[in-house]
Amino acid sequence: MNGRLSIDVYQAIADGVSAGADADEANATALKAGLGEVVAQAQALFGSSYVDIPDDDAREGILRTFQNEGFFQGVRWAAYFGIYNNPDVWLKFGYQGSSVEHGDYIDRGFSDITFVPEGPTLEERMAQVKG
Amino acid sequence: MATFDLNDEGVVVIVGSGAGGGTVANELAQKGIKSVVLEAGPRFDSSDMVNDEWGAFQKLSWLDKRYSAGGWHGAVNHQNLPAWIVKGYGGSTVHWAGVALRFKEYEFKTRSTYGEIADANIEDWPVSLEEMTPYYEKAEIKMGVTGKTTGMPHLPWNNGFRVLAEGCRRTGRTDYDSGPMAINSIERDGRPACQQIGFCMQGCAIGAKWSTMVTELPQAEDTEYCEIRTGAMALKVEHDDSGKVTGVLYADAEGNQQLQKARVVCVAGNSIESPRLLLNSASAMFPDGLANSSGQVGKNYMVHTTGGVYAAMPEPVHMFRGTSVAGIVGDDVYHDPSRGFSGGFYLEFLSLGLPFMAAFMEPGNTGWGKSVAQGLEQYDHMSGVWVLGEDLAQDQNGVTLHDSEVDQYGLAVPVVAKTPHINDVNMTNYMFETSAQIYEAVGATDVYELPAYPASHNMGTNRMHAEASKGVVNAFGQSHDIANLFVSDGSQFTSSGACNPTLTIVALAIRQAEYIAQEMNAQNI
Ligand SMILES: Cc1cc2nc3c(=O)[nH]c(=O)nc-3n(C[C@H](O)[C@H](O)[C@H](O)COP(=O)(O)OP(=O)(O)OC[C@H]3O[C@@H](n4cnc5c(N)ncnc54)[C@H](O)[C@@H]3O)c2cc1C
Ligand code: SF4
What we know:
The complex is a heterodimer of chains A (131) and B (525). By secondary structure, chain A is mainly α. Chain A folds into two domains: 1-94, no CATH class; 96-131, no CATH class. Chain A is built from six helices and no strands. Chain A is elongated and about 75 Å long. With 525 residues, chain B is an alpha/beta fold. Chain B has twelve helices and 17 strands. Chain B has a six-stranded antiparallel beta sheet. A five-stranded parallel beta sheet of chain B has the order 5-2-1-9-17, with helices on one face. In chain B, a hairpin with a 5-residue loop joins strand 6 and strand 7 (245-251). Chains A and B meet through helix 3, helix 4 and helix 6 of A and helix 6, helix 9 and helix 10 of B. Bound molecules: flavin-adenine dinucleotide and iron/sulfur cluster. Residues 183, 194-200, 204, 206, 208-209, 322-323 of chain B line the site of iron/sulfur cluster (SF4). Flavin-adenine dinucleotide (FAD) binds next to helix 1, strand 2, strand 6, helix 8 and helix 12 of chain B.
């Protein structure tokens, strides 16, 4: 991973989720109710609001309670697409995305690592399939 | 391209244009036998291929309604995607990876080799490796498979495979290489050498990889003997009072129903659609579906015992650079029940892009949070394998028709059931452990195990058997019940073997086309 993702990436995901709720009343109702449950659970377990719980594992634990609910999976998949299927952040993960317009990886490091031995040469590969 | 009249009773009608159907069509065309190929999906060519995992998936895949069922995790996590199959000109050869392996001798004789196994329905094939060898050679030459048959060298080793290969060397393995692959390593047969673009499973943009889209189908269309109709979904195979098939009813691209008359019908819609079509063709004379006196149509669905293992290495690997399946490990392909399971398995280096890695690392509702995110942060340090081993035929695994839901053509939706056998469970554990050991030998810091993806290898639902009571078709893929009805795809497989199926599908299709020509000339069909 090359550095952190910028806050805009998360903001865009949140904006997308809000826009989805604005466009669909049932979605909005479920999302509001779901977030309400998260807040209530945080109060019940930690006596504080969700965002004030300092331990990220504890926050994740609260969300795990709701992971089979539709509102949660909606947000989860929005985050998935906003991060892992987002060409703007791929390079942070070291993923180079579409390649064909650059020609190929033959000259762009398809076999450039140095911590293991090289593969066989063309001559060796040719010899292998003779006879 | 030739065009044939709907009332032409002399044509062979082939349902599906993938590995099986596309090959039969071209083989028949080269012999001067007329055929009409009905392909449900659209026409594709190399310029349609995009280097985008989800973009290509949406564009190419069969997304008509289907249900996953049975005990595998996909019945919950991939509810409408039991299998990953292409709908279009070229079928799943458009996005196949190109691994082109032959079955081993014992894999044609599983029943004799393994004996009876509880809860499995295993049988011997009615063909042997010896009989198949000349056809394997023909298939390798046709497809351009790297190795001794063609004299084409295997592909150069990419980063991801070099890591795996070094692990294999350090764990005393000897059978690991970057082939055999049906991908040109040098220019051959009018197609260029692989440029290590990657994204083979999104379709090769330059045609270095064999597919019926770039070879068999255009070659067949260049003769005067083959017409390929895209957007043509076969609905029902019709028959006459004597029990011979007479034609195929299909929905054309405009949604109108048409009946194409036929002298012979070859069904090659892959292992979900082929049995579905035969079951949907039930009639007063054949109340359980066509070619189903054995009751085996739709049964014995096999997909290979699979999973993924991805290891984070101490240094960057950039596994996505170059050929998607860049190397094959064959050391574990043998039968030794003392390992806790019957049959063997391969490890195949397989690069996934970040989108697919993130979707499949932990599919299902639990696949989020810190551990998954931290795993994905190591994406560029990963090398990994797709593990695949023999899957045993079982009565309970198969394709049935939904009792109320229909698809856009009005046909009952297929329900595809797959429950792992204990053999699969034991083999999977063993494959996962073996792969982890290999990667740990090169210094892996973390190893991630991915459960089976939606099935890419689909087999067995119209299986071959010497006896008409135990199988749907004979050794030539010809229905035991109906002489002019053939099955030409992977649904003919009696057992799955450990290897990827397509070379065997193509070899069987070449052999079948020879037999069809002979039987037509002899006026037997
Ligand atoms: C990502 C991926 C990678 C793979 N890699 C490999 C590999 O490396 N090596 C290997 O050996 N195999 C591989 N496979 C498997 C390989 O693609 C299949 O085994 C092979 O293509 C199956 O051939 P087939 O003829 O049975 O069906 P297909 O090639 O799937 O063709 C079936 C065709 O029939 C059409 N059809 C279905 N029903 C109807 C109907 N009713 N009317 C009209 N048309 C219909 C479909 O639209 C489709 O075009 C891979 C598969 C996937 C998904
Ligand atoms: S890596 Fe080679 S075979 Fe694969 S898509 Fe690219 S050029 Fe084609």
